[in-house]
Amino acid sequence: MRIYYTCDCCGEPIDEIEVEEVDDAKFGFDCLTAKERQDIIKVDTAAGIMQVQSLCDKCIEYLGFQDAGDRGTGHRFLH
């Protein structure tokens, strides 16, 4: 499956990878609620494509998240 990461803020492509199998834990998807998964991950199994909305480095910096990380803030970023 080909996974395309796109910035949810600016719309720019972040990266794309090809994987044999999507491992939810490996990609951090296991930490998402069902609603979060529905909002940020779109899968086209017939085409073998997954679209993932994340944040690019520029938008992370612009929004002030670069220092927050996951230090007890409750935020986990897939990017």
Indicate the overall shape: globular
Average pLDDT works out at: 86
Order of helices and strands: EEHHEEH
Report helical residue fraction.
10-25%
Number of helices: 3
**Number of discrete domains:** 1
Radius of gyration: 13 Å
- Give the spatial strand order of the biggest sheet: 2-1-4-3
What does this structure look like?
The chain is α+β, with helices and mostly antiparallel strands and 79 residues long. The chain has one domain (2-62). Helix content is 22%, strand content 28%. It is built from 3 helices and 4 strands. The chain has helices at 24-27, 34-40, 57-62; strands at residues 2-7, 13-18, 41-44, 49-54. A 4-stranded mixed β-sheet has the order 2-1-4-3. β3 (41-44) and β4 form a beta hairpin. The protein starts with a strand and ends in a 17-residue tail after the last helix. Mean pLDDT is 86; it is low at 70-74. It comes from Propionispora vibrioides. This is DUF2757 domain-containing protein. Pfam families: Fin. InterPro entries: Fin.
What attributes does this structure have?
about 80 residues, alpha+beta, 4-stranded mixed β-sheet, 3 helices, about 30% strand, Fin, DUF2757 domain-containing protein
How are the SSEs placed, and which strands pair?
Layout: E1 2-7, E2 13-18, H1 24-27, H2 34-40, E3 41-44, E4 49-54, H3 57-62
Parallel strand pairs: 1-4
Antiparallel strand pairs: 1-2, 3-4
